[in-house]
Amino acid sequence: MRFDTSPAPHVIAGYTVPRVMFQVLFALLPAGIAHVALFGPGLLLQLSVACVTALLAEAAALRWRGRDAAPALKDGSVLVTAFLLAFSIPPLLPWWLGALGTALAVLLGKHVFGGLGQNPFNPAMVGYAILLVSFPAEMTRWPVPMDVDGTRTWSELAQLSFAGFYGADLAVRWDGYTGATALDSIRSGLDLRYTLPELLGRGEIAGTLGARGFAWINLAALAGGLYLMARRIVRWHIPVAVLGGLLVPSFIAHGLDSGIALGPAMQAFSGATMLAAFFIATDPVSAATSDRGRLWYGAGIGLIAWIIRTWGGYPDGFAFAVLLMNLAVPFIDRYTVPRIYGRQP
Amino acid sequence: MAARSTFPAGLVLDAHKQQACESPIIELPLPTQVVLALDQGAGYSAEPVVAVGDAVAAGALVARADHPFASAVHAPLAGIIVAMETREAAVQGGRSLCIVIDGSGADRIDDSVRPVTDPASLSPEELVQRMRDAGIAGLGGAGFPTPTKLASARELGAHTLVLNGAECEPWICCDDALMRSAADDVVLGALILRRAAGTVRCVIAIEDDKPAAIAAVTKAIERLRDDALTLAVIPAVYPKGAERQLITAVAGVEVPAGGLPADAGVVCQNVATAAAVARWATRGEPMLSRIVTVTGSGVAHPGNVRAAIGTPLAALIAACGGYRGAPLRLIAGGSMTGRALPSDEVGLTKSMNCVLVTTRDDIGSRLGAVELPCIRCGDCASVCPAGLLPQQLLRAALADAHDALRRLGVRDCIDCGLCDYVCPSQIPLADRFRHARRRLLEAEAMANKAAAARERHELHKRRLQQAATAEQRAFDSVRNRARQPGDGSAGDGN
Predict the structure, then answer these.
(1) How far apart are CA A52 and CA A103, in angstroms?
(2) Interchain proximity A9–B329, CB inside 8 Å
(3) Among the ranges given (A5-9, A135-139, B490-494), the one the predictor scored with the smallest mean pLDDT
(4) What's B18-307's CATH class?
């Protein structure tokens, strides 16, 4: 009897890239629910425009590059990019800005470098950073979350979301329904020489745990992230290092001057902290390679985000922190090659 | 490397051992024909000492081990040599010179088959030489000649003999079956091997998923009351049974890169090899048979079979109820490192611990694999037992960057296949690295050749120059003498 002779190993675990990607999308579900419950359905609008744009941009890029588009569209990676960008941008963003950011993320962030696996920068953060520096007003305008004073209904938030999505002028009809995020308000308050206890005492900024509204999204993202860790899709090094890099300096600074420095709980449950720690910084393509390298990489992201949150000109620092550390990856990889069995360190 | 080394990587895999292990070992009667590959799996061939048409007795030498990496081959049955030709074999490269013997049915045993009267009275050197004559080779999978390993261990002053009963690869359970049924042989062989290798102590290592084997070996050791023979139970993690990983698990030391286990003071042998040594010592029988696991969902009744070396694999499969379903791949070895064979007419070799007949049920995951780009997830690095970065190695392999391949340790890869196994992009990493090693070897051979040619050319040029200079000097002196006859004679007086 004759048989086929293929090289070993003859079995594989069968844990494929599409399965990894769809698990990541699934793990975003709790954060998505919290987002929609607190900020209205804007996220769903942003997600739909981002997903459609991402798939179109991916297909177009692959066509231009003379590649077969079908397997790449099915691998789910471009949807992860779309989801991460949609979660990062304000839910009121006009649809064309979401589309522009997504197209730039896929084209400039991914395909100019050669597509899946080749991009040195996190594509979603490339798109986000371009939008943030180009459209600062739109990119920092968030709905006031549901749980602040209960006078607003979810259906009003829904109307607001659609108005923002279609690009209506929000200043007239929706004045008071929109505002800066908690981190943003705190920054401007501190610039006006308020003290932190005064700002946090106002109630519309902080809740019991972290920033109003964002605290729940962060908790939900943390739950999703722990799920990914339990499924061994994300290993602990990057999330732990990101949180360490952010929380250790904030703990020290808060201890030194609690009048102006946010404490670790507020830092952990504000802005994009958990999303960045578990979903954005963990993008393996643009992260450092070895476990030790990933600790340095994550700690750098956390630290830079803390620096930008503390002294920078932007409300949240994670996008730039991730991009800066992406830049440092070749350097980190160079100096964190693990010791090979039987070789001297 | 003073501290105890802990290389924790590896992975717990589905064992698939239950079914084959349940039934007792089948003693397969001698086949009507054997196909003896002269390369028994180590990559080097023995030199035939018989010719087509010769009659041989059972146990007679048919091929001599001239090279230290080759093993002597003996006729497992009495009969006539009917062919000596290159055939498909379960060896590197897929082909080997084979001696084919038709059994005559006679029960004629060769005169050389005599029990070793008292192995303890023989010097280690004599033991090693007689094991070489008996064709003792490693039964664990590599088929490396045991005597060569023992001799180098003694030379390098190894202090510990590790007997490998880990059997970490999925599907394979012949060592488990052996230890349960013949633990005394294993222990007796251990003592002889320990003496031949000149080590102080011997540790038998078994993975903790084999409680029956552990109990049997424990009992056999207790009967012996030898303090320098102990048992180590190690966790059942693939590939803990790979030589270097096992040494680290048992002795806490690492084998230096590019070195031998004996450089770390350890020599490793398989438990089945030890049992074969005991068989040789008590019965005088050279290595004529082995226990092999015949399993996979393509076999009707998986089990362990003791069969003569050279038995066609078809006969082994027939002994286990024949094929079942739609067999796709016939593998010599386990599912992770085994070699897929083209045909079941191949003869059993000493290095073959398992015959795995797979159907789509077993290897469907691999058959359906679609290769995607590497997403640098690092799962490969987290399981690599050698501490390598397979994703970086892949880049170097694709770029054929030889310096990077060497620096990143393509040669420290033990070919366990785990990186392949876990890769979500389903990249055939192990095979890429195999190719890279081969290309590296070729490039180095080319470089050596080029260096030799350059040296030859330089020397040749120098020789020509020297000859030319000598000629010139001779010419000059003649010319000078011709030009200045007076001066020359005038100076003579001074």
Answers:
(1) 10
(2) no
(3) B490-494
(4) alpha beta
In terms of CA atoms, which chain B residue is nearest residue A5? Answer: B340
Residue A329 near residue A286, CB atoms below 8 Å = yes
HEC sequence for chain A: CECCCCCCCCCCCCCCHHHHHHHHHHHCHHHHHHHHHHHCCHHHHHHHHHHHHHHHHHHHHHHHCCCCHHHHHHCCHHHHHHHHHHHHCCCCCCHHHHHHHHHHHHHCCCHHHCCCCCCCCCHHHHHHHHHHHHCHHHHCCEECCCCCCCCCCHHHHHHHHHHHHCCCCHHHHCCCCEECCHHHHHHHHHHCCCCHHHHHHCCCCECCCCECCHHHHHHHHHHHHHHHHHCCCCCCHHHHHHHHHHHHHHHHHHHHCCCCCCCHHHHHCCCCHHHHHHHHCCCCCCCCCCHHHHHHHHHHHHHHHHHHHHHCCCCCCHHHHHHHHHHHHHHHHHHCCCCCCCCCC
Distance of CA B194 to the CA centre of its chain: 20
pLDDT digits (tens, 9 = 90+) for B149-158: 999 999 999 9
- Cα end-to-end span (Å), chain B: 74
Three-state DSSP state, B292: strand
From chain B, the residues in CB contact with A342 under 8 A are 244, 254-259, 386, 412
B340-373 tens-digit pLDDT = 999 999 999 999 999 999 998 888 888 888 888 9
- Tell me which chain A residues have a C-beta less than 8 angstroms from the C-beta of B254: 341-342
Report the amino acid identity of residue B217: V
pTM: 0.86
CATH 1.20.120 matches B369-477: no
Question: For tokens 């999303």, what's the residue?
Answer: A275
- Domain edges within chain B: 18-307, 369-477
